[in-house]
Amino acid sequence: MSLTITELPHKEQALFRSALRLYEVRQYKKGFKTCEQILKKFPNHGETLAVKGMFLAYLDRNEEAYTTIKRGIEISPQSSISWHVYGIVCRRDEKFEEATKCYEEALKVDSENVSILRELAQLQTQIRQYDRLVETRARIVKLDGNNTPSYWLGLAVAHQLTGRYDLALRIISTHENTVLDENSGFKANNPDYRAEVSELLMYKTWLMELNGDFQMALDNLKEIRPRITDVTGWKEQKAKLLLKLNRKEAAASAYQDLIERNPDNNNYICSYLLCNGLDMSRPEDKDAVLEIIKGLQKQFPISNTLKFVPLTFCTGDDFVREADILAKYSLRKGIPSLFASMKTLYMNEAKGTALGKLFEGYALQLRDTKRFSDSTDDESSLVLMWCKLYLAQHADYYGDYERALKLVEEAISTSPDTVDLYMVKAKVLKHAGDIRGARDIMDFGRQKDLKDRFINTKTVKYMLRNNEVDEAEKTIVLLVRDDAPHKVQEIVDTQTIWYMREQGHAYRRLGDIGRALKHYQQVADSFATYHNDQYDFHSYSMRKFTVRAYNDILKWEDQLFTHHVYVDSAKAAIDCYVDLYDRKAAGSPFVPISEKPMKPFTRNGSAKQGQHNLSAGLGETKPVAVDVDPNGSKFVEADDYLERALKFVEVLETYVGSQPETHVSAFEVHLRMKKYFLALKSINSLKAIDDDYSSLVPMVVRMRAALDSDETFAAPMKAALKDQLFKAFGDASIESTIETHKQSLTFMLAGAKCMIRLGGESNVARAKDLLLQAASDRYGETRTLKNLLAAKDLLVEAGASESELATYATSAKQVFALSTCF
């Protein structure tokens, strides 16, 4: 039978408690040595083994740490300390679900340990187990004899997260006097007392609103006004409540007050219109809305938002009149982002055309008379320059790249030192397919103002899109702080996700899959860090009463992995892993491209490879993280490509399951893993989103082919799957789909890709024939630069000859005459 801490001799008990204190002050090396002293006499003391394992984890000896902890639990399975320690290590390694189970095991032994309950509550919030969170928070409040504010507030928040707003209100009403009473002791030595009280009162009012008690919330809001420090938040909530109570006159006055504070807040403006019974989306309200906006424009002439709002609902002559006001104001002010702010209007074809005519008229007036038709004063030459810049972007939007370049060149001749002109020229060249030229122009513009961080980062992005990885790295390190010990690693440490993604794409285009995967993983790791960083706020926000902001954090975190940078990187990583798997299956595995490894640095100077500073206590420094795998070899040399890809697939299915490409990626992985039922699920999910998606029929055809060729798969299940496919898609084929969508290059590319994947001389030859015609006129507007480059890549994959590629490049250049990328 194992010893517990109380059964150790007095000296060893003291050493054990000393080890726990050393953990609290982060003296891990000393704590490890203390555990070793105990284990010399009692080598099978389970709790000491577990604590020793914890210290090993913090000394970066993870494998040994878990082995030691598990050995300790085997010896002392009824020890809450052992389970608690295991939970701490799992939590440290961000294994939150496993950590939660460990804490629950610890509570089976020590059910009244508030420390364990408190940490369990954080974990349950982290993994969104809100129902269990309520139970845990309730136990904490029940065990607490001091009426601790963070405990009962935590319970209220738990009820709120489960939608039980009435219970949350009841808890706050029961306990709030311990905070609100200035004689209660909570105020003493608390410099943030006023702000924390303000937050608590505002949170209570918000709960009333969530519970549907709008009048009660409004009455409470008026009562608490003297104690509120967030005046803007108070005014916003008051205006919102008045509108919900249909007290439109009072609500209008409240929103008028808010507009005076911030006339560029679009939400205030829209709500103010609702107070007047108006809605910009209703055509019959247009005249009345315009009259109110005009009145606000007179009150707040500096508001750009008020100038832009009429453009969103006006049409015809009214639109031109309002656009004229904003355009002339912006041109005279020299606002480079004018086209960017107008771009959303171009989704309406009539408005895009009207804006083009309007600015063409300006250019003619300014060129001939140096003034606008309704003006008696000459305009600066720069006004014509900004007008030409807008027209260049207008022409670029409609694909007239030659005219766009001509206009931007004219603008540059007027003001050759204006950086924005070169940025627009570079963008036009990029859209025209001249990636190298775009990179050169962007870099030329950067030289005009080396301190402009925006154009510096834009230049880096263009260098990467031109596959100049080394040059991009030399440029971006100029933006890194001077005292950074390793500037390249600093870019990773500061989580510069746009750079890591573009770097991954560049390496992928260069055929270096290892480095590409390395950078995609860096993006994924950055997002994982964002997600895991919320952990500390689960307790901090309760202590500091910042509960409203905390709710915003939870909402933001819940949609974190929908960010386009993560989604794009995840899909690219899946494609890379699938490519590695296919190469290996074909007998020609990818070989990592070697490179001289980077020399590691510490913050105090250089260090030898492999050196580690084990002591990581207070006042001690760790070496800077060293890139031990600069080539991404560990990704290429792994033997679980599809399992790694599946991890990305699972995240995408959870967060962006509404995007068709998610299920295309999932299908590619499941099919290769021979998980045919999951592959069918991906097909059905895609069909539910878009039953005419370009990849849908090719996926069905490939699934049929996979089932036919897999002799190991059970015949009854194979028949059932084929039956399901037939019921949903009949005898759909690639040829019939391409014929049905014969004017769509997107469908042709999907079909050709499927033929190449199916293999066979006839399929590949047919795919090449189709791809060589990708620039044909019949495909019309679907001949985008992206699609034509995809066709080129598929030709290479299909083994096209140099002469075939040259023929294709010639035809593609007829569509994109300025291109250099074919």
Summarize the structure.
With 822 residues, this protein is an all-alpha fold.
What features would you describe in this structure?
Strands 1-2 form a two-stranded antiparallel ribbon. Mean pLDDT is 92; it is low at 596-621. 69% of the residues lie in helices and 0% in strands. The protein has 822 residues and is mostly helical. Among the domains are: 5-111, Alpha Horseshoe (Serine Threonine Protein Phosphatase 5, Tetratricopeptide repeat), CATH 1.25.40; 314-416, no CATH class; 734-822. It contains 44 helices and 2 strands. The longest helix has 22 residues, at 564-585. Keywords: Repeat, TPR repeat. This is N-terminal acetyltransferase A, auxiliary subunit. InterPro entries: NatA_aux_su, TPR-like_helical_dom_sf, TPR_rpt. TPR repeats lie at residues 80-113.
Keywords for this entry:
single chain; 822 residues; mainly alpha; Serine Threonine Protein Phosphatase 5, Tetratricopeptide repeat; two-stranded antiparallel sheet; 44 helices; 2 strands; 69% helix; 0% strand; NatA_aux_su; TPR_rpt
Could you give the count of β-strands? 2
CATH architecture of the domain at 5-111: Alpha Horseshoe
Structural class: mainly alpha
For CATH, the homologous superfamily of the domain at 5-111 is named as Tetratricopeptide repeat domain
Which CATH first-tier class of the domain at 5-111 would you pick?
Mainly Alpha
Multimerization state: single chain
According to CATH, what is the topology of the domain at 5-111? Serine Threonine Protein Phosphatase 5, Tetratricopeptide repeat
Helix fraction, binned, reads 55-70%
How far the N terminus sits from the C terminus, by CA atoms, comes to 75 Å
Shape, per Cα inertia axes = globular
How many helices? The count is 44
Strand order of the largest sheet: 1-2
Keywords: Repeat, TPR repeat
Protein name: N-terminal acetyltransferase A, auxiliary subunit
InterPro entries: NatA_aux_su, TPR-like_helical_dom_sf, TPR_rpt
Pfam family, one: TPR_8
